[in-house]
Write a structure and sequence with these properties.
Number of strands: 8
Radius of gyration: 18 Å
Largest sheet: 8 strands, mixed
Pfam families: Methyltransf_11
EC number: 2.1.1.197
Function: Converts the free carboxyl group of a malonyl-thioester to its methyl ester by transfer of a methyl group from S-adenosyl-L-methionine (SAM). It allows to synthesize pimeloyl-ACP via the fatty acid synthetic pathway.
Oligomer: single chain
Shape: globular
Catalytic activity: malonyl-[ACP] + S-adenosyl-L-methionine = malonyl-[ACP] methyl ester + S-adenosyl-L-homocysteine
Distance between the termini: 29 Å
Order of helices and strands: HHHEHEHEEHEHHEHHHEE
Keywords: Biotin biosynthesis, Methyltransferase, S-adenosyl-L-methionine, Transferase
């Protein structure tokens, strides 16, 4: 099933579609956060076997496949047809839906579990997205998600600002605003800083490009990344003894459906 997307969501979908074939080989941070999200489900004593699960923002189906192996009936949903094609090639799910999580094409209380790893930050309205996820969850079910909070990619943003006065990085919601969006429901949230290190700036930028985040880092004042511009950005980037540091402010959340 394919549903129409807004122009903004089409741009995001296109960026991820271009990265789809090599996504799994580069998305170490995403895979790590997703495994921690599965651990969160386990710690909440949620059994996946024989459950109807929707993987919202499934990407290549990396976690759809893992959840399916645990005996669940999985629906894989993503903005990007390119990502869904990779997931379909893996036989990662029972069905594949190309749609926006802010307008889900499902009846109320369709799924036992909603799983969403690093997708919610792409939504234009977090409250709307969470309300939709809550709506399609069965009574007694759970929604688990990861997202990014304010301060993510701060080193890159600061380096760009030194270079030309622009951050070139989208603003993420503060942890306080994310918490406020969860207030209507019983929930638990955790903020976890995750630091990645890269030997050079080219590989740091490639890690973002390779996961489809070109839209996120392009900025309105971007322009082409020439060799000279890359060198200038390297000089502006804060260095550490471990290499070039890039911080993600990862939010882990669980919402309980009454």
């Amino acid at each position: 099933m394919v549903l129409p997307l807004s122009d903004e969501k089409q741009k995001i979908a296109s960026a991820f579609g271009k990265a789809a074939k090599r996504y799994d080989s580069i998305a170490y941070y995403q895979q790590n956060s997703g495994h921690q999200l599965l651990d969160l489900l386990a710690s909440a004593q949620v059994n996946l076997s024989d459950k109807k699960v929707i993987d919202v923002g499934c990407g290549t189906g990396f976690f759809s496949q893992i959840i399916k192996r645990q005996g669940a009936e999985v629906t894989a949903l993503d903005l990007s047809l390119g990502m869904l094609e990779v997931a379909r090639d893996k036989k990662a799910a029972a069905q594949y839906i190309c749609a926006d999580m802010e307008l889900l094409p499902f009846a109320d209380q369709t799924f036992d579990i909603v799983f969403s790893n690093l997708a919610i930050q792409w939504c234009s309205n977090l409250s709307q997205a969470l309300t939709e996820l809550h709506r399609v969850t069965k009574s007694g079910g759970v929604i688990v998600f990861t997202t990014l909070a304010k301060g993510s990619l701060s080193e890159l943003s600061q380096a760009w600002a030194k270079l030309d006065g622009y951050s070139h990085v989208n603003e993420f919601l503060s942890f306080e605003l994310i918490t406020a969006s969860c207030q209507p429901w019983k929930h638990q949230l955790l903020l976890q800083p995750d630091k990645l290190y890269f030997p050079d700036l080219a590989r740091l930028l490639n890690s973002l490009k390779g996961i489809g985040a070109t839209h996120l880092t392009a900025g309105r004042q971007g322009g082409l990344m020439t060799r000279q511009r890359l060198q200038q950005l390297t000089h502006a980037y804060p260095a550490s003894v471990n290499g070039l540091e890039l911080t993600y402010q990862t939010v882990f959340g669980i919402i309980y459906r009454d």
